[in-house]
Design a protein that fits this description.
Layout lengths: L5 H11 L6 H13 L4 H15 E3 L6 E3 L6 H4 L4 E8 L2 H8 L6 E5 L17 H10 L4 E4 L5 H14 L5 E4 L15 H9 L2 E2 L1
Parallel strand pairs: 3-4, 3-5, 5-6
Antiparallel strand pairs: 1-2, 6-7
């Protein structure tokens, strides 16, 4: 015999699928949804339903774009320097760097990091597309803005190997970022200093 209505159990299970959400947090989120008088639960449900068909990926940078849009507005912005590319693991890393207001180049989203233990190899990331962009956009500098983790370092090293002997500057974010902290959770001052103090690899 279940102690909870199936609808509530299903909601707890759904919240539990989110990264960083344990069983107790999932229960709190679900319980809040049942007792909240406003229209927050309906807004959440509507937003989740619209998510699948409302998001696409830029065919050039692999950043998030509205569904049906092929190229991101940021890449198409004539004020951005296409010869400088910051390479990030995930779309929200791009957002974090952009909030510093200090980067005027463009981005390339890998879609993850090389992690054999998780079954993620280089071929599953957008590394070939990055190398193609380097040639087509006549890139002069690549900023490897991956996390300071084993996976981030391995990915950065693999990218350097793929770049080969192309004549461009390869830099890494300065170590103002604490080890183990994802870019999206770093504050803007720390990220800004890391951008300013990037070093040649």
């Amino acid at each position: 015999m279940s102690l909870l209505p199936p609808a509530l159990s299903d909601l707890i299970e759904a919240f539990g699928l989110l990264p960083g959400v344990g069983p107790r947090t999932a229960e709190r989120y679900a319980y809040y949804s049942t007792r909240h008088d406003g229209d927050s639960p309906q807004k959440l449900a509507t937003a989740l339903q619209a998510l699948g068909g409302g998001i696409g990926y830029c065919k050039r940078t692999f950043a998030l774009v509205p569904a049906g849009q092929d190229i991101s507005d940021l890449y198409n912005d004539p004020r951005r320097d296409k010869t400088i590319v910051a390479v990030v693991a995930e779309p929200f890393d791009l957002v974090a760097l952009e909030k510093t207001g200090q980067f005027k180049g463009t981005y390339h989203v890998l879609g993850g990091l090389v992690s054999p233990i998780d079954g993620v190899g280089p071929e599953q990331l957008h590394i070939k597309e990055l190398v193609k962009r380097i040639d087509e956009d006549k890139v002069t500098e690549i900023i490897l803005a991956t996390n300071a983790s084993v996976e981030g370092e391995s990915t950065a090293l693999y990218i350097q190997q793929q770049i080969g002997d192309r004549k461009l500057k390869v830099t890494r974010l300065a170590r103002g970022l604490p080890v183990g902290v994802d870019l999206e959770y770093a504050d803007q001052i720390t990220l800004g200093r890391a951008l300013e103090g990037r070093q040649a690899v």
